[in-house]
Write a structure and sequence with these properties.
Blueprint lengths: L1 H29 L5 E3 L3 E8 L2 E12 L6 E14 L7 E9 L14 E3 L4 E11 L6 E14 L2 E12 L12 E3 L2 E6 L10 H9 L8 E5 H7 L3 E2 L8 H6 L12 H11 L1 H16 L5 H6 L2 H4 L14 E2 L5 H12 L2 E7 L5 E6 L5 H8 L13 E5 L1
Parallel strand pairs: 12-15
Antiparallel strand pairs: 1-3, 2-3, 3-7, 4-6, 4-8, 5-7, 8-9, 10-11, 11-17, 12-17, 13-14, 15-16
């Protein structure tokens, strides 16, 4: 009798402990982590002399963590300069200056640990002083800002990647043109497009000076995604069980043939949809209908570009498809009066139209873009003007 009572007591106690642990685990999972993020900020070339560039960026640390204060004990930055020539003799110095409302910056360029209150933000400035001969060869600067968030979620390292263009073509220079069936096509050269740009302003600056009534402007889907900041470094992607196994079944040239590339899709549509698309696509392939995986997985499955998929420095990143392309083309038309389209074009004469304004002929676009006038290399002509 006593043994039965003790046994029952142990079972009840075990159940209570298990339920308590589950409750603690659920509470832990529902607790906010260190949702403190560094914005890309505003950047400008404050000095642009033949032997001296001064690049200045103003950024914000924003604490979006609910009910928790987050500390920032460390902020560091490094720069990779990209040039059309040698970087021999080119040097730079980086300064990170905090602009906290309640604490002045130190004169020795030391970042002291700072607490960002709940729902608050604080500012910082990064200045990059570049010295060297003939700096006009510089194309862009890739700035990696490494910062540490510290709080109940632990010590979490984070990175903000910012690409800043340093070379800007003359928007008034006459673009090259080529004749195609029923249209004349003008590939428009721009600076390296980054998340600091705006697609409407790009069209106004580079396209409008050459446009006529009835013209159509097209923007590549990858450049638009880059402007929208829709790119991820593989080190920030954590491949899971699904991505690690399914990626092996794709052609080596596919952007989904790597664990990180596939995980990017999993992060967008979820692992269940990817599994359904995989099994459904496999059955369809056996029945003589290849390519159905992309139909089942959704449009983003076709638009993801893995590393090496675009020009430097974006060749180090995984680039997603653009967001709300239809809204973008309508905004361009409203601001400029030009018909507009967002397109995905490759050297295999494949033209996919993601979005277009109402009166734009899709057949005209396909015929005009079939030869891929924008190119897929380093032409840096992401915008194409089509004159029917």
């Amino acid at each position: 009798m006593i043994i039965e009572i003790l046994t029952t007591g142990v079972i009840v106690l075990t159940i209570l402990i298990t339920l308590t642990c589950l409750g603690i685990e659920l509470q832990y999972r529902n607790r906010p982590g260190n949702a403190l993020e560094l914005t890309t900020g505003d950047w400008n070339l404050a000095v642009a002399e033949p032997e001296n560039y001064l690049l200045v960026g103003e950024m914000e640390l924003c604490n979006r963590t609910k009910n928790l204060e987050i500390m920032v004990p460390e902020v560091r930055a490094k720069v990779k300069l990209l040039s059309s020539g040698s970087l021999e003799g080119v040097s730079y110095q980086i300064k990170i200056i905090p602009f906290h409302k309640d604490a002045p910056a130190r004169g020795d360029n030391y970042w002291f640990a700072y607490i960002v209150k709940i729902g608050k933000k604080t500012k910082l400035k990064i200045s990059i002083d570049i010295q060297g001969n003939n700096l006009k060869q510089l194309n862009s600067a890739w700035i990696k800002v490494n910062y540490i968030t510290y709080g109940p979620g632990g010590r979490i390292p984070k990175v903000q990647d910012i690409i800043v263009p340093l070379k800007f073509p003359d928007p008034n220079s006459t673009p090259n043109q080529r004749k195609v069936k029923n249209a004349t096509v003008f590939p428009i050269r721009t600076h390296l497009l980054t998340q600091l740009d705006d697609p409407i302003e790009i069209v106004k600056h580079y396209v409008v000076p050459h446009a006529q009534k009835g013209d159509i402007v097209t923007i590549g889907e990858t450049p638009l995604a880059l402007i929208q900041g829709r790119f991820r470094h593989p080190k920030d992607v954590k491949p899971g069980w699904v991505a690690k196994r399914i990626c092996y079944f794709f052609m080596p040239t596919s952007s989904l043939a790597t664990a990180c590339g596939m995980q990017t899709l999993v992060d967008i549509v979820g692992p269940i949809r990817v599994l359904i698309a995989f099994f459904g696509g496999s059955i369809a392939k056996i029945l003589g209908k290849p390519g159905m995986f992309y139909q089942f997985a959704g449009q983003q499955a076709r638009l993801i570009d893995d590393v090496t998929g675009t020009l430097p420095p974006y060749d180090q990143f995984i680039v997603l498809g653009p967001e709300n392309p239809q809204q973008v083309v309508e905004q361009i038309q409203q601001a400029t009066g030009l018909g507009a389209a967002i397109v995905d074009v490759n050297d295999l004469k494949a033209v996919k139209i993601l979005a277009a304004t109402s009166k734009v002929s899709h057949s005209l676009l396909r015929e005009a873009l079939r030869s891929n006038p924008a190119g897929n290399a380093d032409e840096q002509t992401p915008v194409v003007l089509i004159r029917p």
